[in-house]
Every structure is written in structure tokens, then in C-alpha cells.
């Protein structure tokens, strides 16, 4: 398996869960956060192996060829605009959703802005990047433990076919999920509909954030 330099913008539940598994898989992970001196960043430093870097978004991006976006949705536009040069030509995975944290669950209804993804922003400011949509459609708990009664959950994603797709599938596999490609970026709404389906069951029908993921049955 190849090892990569991965910049993760955001070290909340999503960034830290994926970053920890990718570090264990042998990748060099560099987190970029708003405040690298915060208590949360300090805690992460203590919990992580010595090879893990935690700094500003610019410092993190300078250390990564692959970028995972994992900050609150409302921060993405400014982050991407400010760091456009550092993002362009890279392989970018957008795990962010244009949601206000906790609001959808608390209100018991879908309160998302449309679209959920930041594809238009990324294509505007990083036109040469290879962009994938992945890791946005389940709660972080599914990434921490993707096995449901002995069955490995599928992770649905989209983005360009080719060499970079192999990399994405390796990274999904290292989270212990099974990758299911839904097509190019023209299929991004299909990926985002997985989140809508997940929220309908896990949040609105109260089946639990930790209890829902999907598997394709085929024969
Ligand atoms: N939580 C989930 O289960 C889940 C599931 C799927 C997708 N998502 C999506 O993934 C994204 C991350 O969610 P999350 O719950 O993991 O964390 P979050 O609470 O949305 O984000 C926290 C992280 O983002 C950093 N951050 C905030 N503003 C920033 C800025 N302007 N520049 C750089 N870093 C900034 C914070 O840094 P500081 O600590 O320094 O403030 C912190 O590390 C969101 O878009 C969310 O919709 C979340």
C-alpha cells in the first residue's frame, strides 16, 4: 500500500477520526485548524503520535498532497478562497456539509442549505484540483466503527475515474469501509442524497446516529 501526505482541514469529530486511522495506516497527517493553540488542539497533540502535525490551514496544506476538508460548512468558502493556490492541483476530498451543527437533529427536520456540498466553490478557486465527494454521508461514529452486526458498511462516493480513484478507494478501505463509486462529479447529488436518507432514518426516525449505515445487495 502507498503512503501519502494528507492535510486535514478541521480536527473535529470527522477530521480527528479519519486522521487517526490514516496515521495508523502509515500516512503523514497534518491538521490545519482555526486555533492551533486551543485546548482541543493540545489534547489532539497529546493523543496523536509524534509524527502528526497540527498547525494553521496554510501550514497544513503545505504538508499535504491530499486534502480532506472537514471544517464547518460556513467556513469553506473563505478557507478555499484564501488558500486557493495551496489547494489547486491537489487531490481534494470534500467531507463538509452546508449544515448548521446539530440543527437538523435538534429541529427534527431537514434544515440544510442547498447544495450540501462545496463543489462550485472548489471548482472556482482550485480549477486544477482532482475533487472527490466522500465521508460526508454518515455520522463520524460510522467512521470510528463501520461494522454493523458483523457486516462492513459501504461508503458511497463520487469523483473522477483513474489513478486518483485508486487512492480514494485505498483511503476509504483504511477506514474499514467498503468503497462504492457512484460516478463522476455529475453524481454528487446522489452521494448527498445518501446523507438525506441517513438523516431521515438516524435522526428523524430516531434510530440513532451510531446505528445506521448502508450496504448494497447485489446478485
Ligand atoms: N460530525 C459528523 O458526524 C459529521 C459527519 C459527516 C460530515 N460532517 C461534516 O464535516 C465537517 C466537520 O464536522 P465536525 O463535526 O467534524 O467538526 P466541526 O465542529 O464542524 O469543525 C471543527 C473543526 O473545524 C476547525 N475550524 C473551524 N473553523 C475553521 C477555520 N475557519 N479554519 C480552519 N479550521 C477551522 C476547528 O478548529 P478549532 O478547533 O481551532 O476551532 C475544528 O478543528 C462539517 O462540515 C460537517 O457538516 C460531520
TrEMBL record:
SUPFAM superfamilies: NAD(P)-binding Rossmann-fold domains. PANTHER family: DUDULIN-RELATED, REDUCTASE. The gene is mmyQ. GO terms for molecular function: oxidoreductase activity. The keyword Oxidoreductase applies. This is Pyrroline-5-carboxylate reductase catalytic N-terminal domain-containing protein. Pfam families: F420_oxidored (PF03807). InterPro entries: NAD(P)-bd_dom_sf, P5C_Rdtase_cat_N, STEAP_metalloreductase. The keyword Signal does not apply. Keywords: Oxidoreductase. Residues 5-97 form the Pyrroline-5-carboxylate reductase catalytic N-terminal domain. It comes from the Bacteria.
Amino acid at each position: 500500500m502507498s503512503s501519502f501526505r494528507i492535510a486535514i482541514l478541521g480536527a473535529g469529530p470527522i477530521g480527528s477520526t479519519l486522521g487517526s486511522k490514516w496515521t495508523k495506516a502509515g500516512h503523514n497527517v497534518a491538521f490545519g485548524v482555526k486555533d492551533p493553540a486551543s485546548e482541543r488542539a493540545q489534547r489532539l497533540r497529546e493523543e496523536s503520535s509524534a509524527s502528526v502535525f497540527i498547525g494553521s490551514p496554510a501550514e497544513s496544506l503545505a504538508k499535504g498532497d491530499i486534502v480532506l476538508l472537514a471544517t464547518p460548512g460556513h467556513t469553506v468558502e473563505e478557507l478555499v478562497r484564501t488558500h486557493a493556490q495551496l489547494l489547486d492541483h491537489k487531490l481534494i476530498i470534500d467531507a463538509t456539509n452546508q449544515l448548521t451543527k446539530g440543527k437538523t437533529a435538534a429541529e427534527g427536520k431537514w434544515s440544510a442549505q442547498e447544495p450540501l456540498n462545496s463543489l462550485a466553490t472548489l471548482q472556482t478557486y482550485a480549477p486544477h484540483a482532482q475533487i472527490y465527494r466522500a465521508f460526508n454521508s454518515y455520522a463520524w461514529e460510522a467512521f470510528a466503527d463501520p461494522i454493523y452486526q458483523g457486516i462492513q458498511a459501504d461508503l458511497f462516493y463520487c469523483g473522477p475515474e483513474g489513478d486518483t480513484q485508486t487512492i480514494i478507494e485505498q483511503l476509504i478501505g483504511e477506514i474499514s469501509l467498503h468503497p462504492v463509486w457512484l460516478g463522476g462529479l455529475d453524481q454528487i447529488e446522489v452521494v448527498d442524497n445518501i446523507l438525506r436518507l441517513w438523516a431521515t432514518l438516524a435522526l428523524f426516525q430516531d434510530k440513532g446516529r451510531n446505528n445506521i449505515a448502508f450496504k448494497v445487495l447485489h446478485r
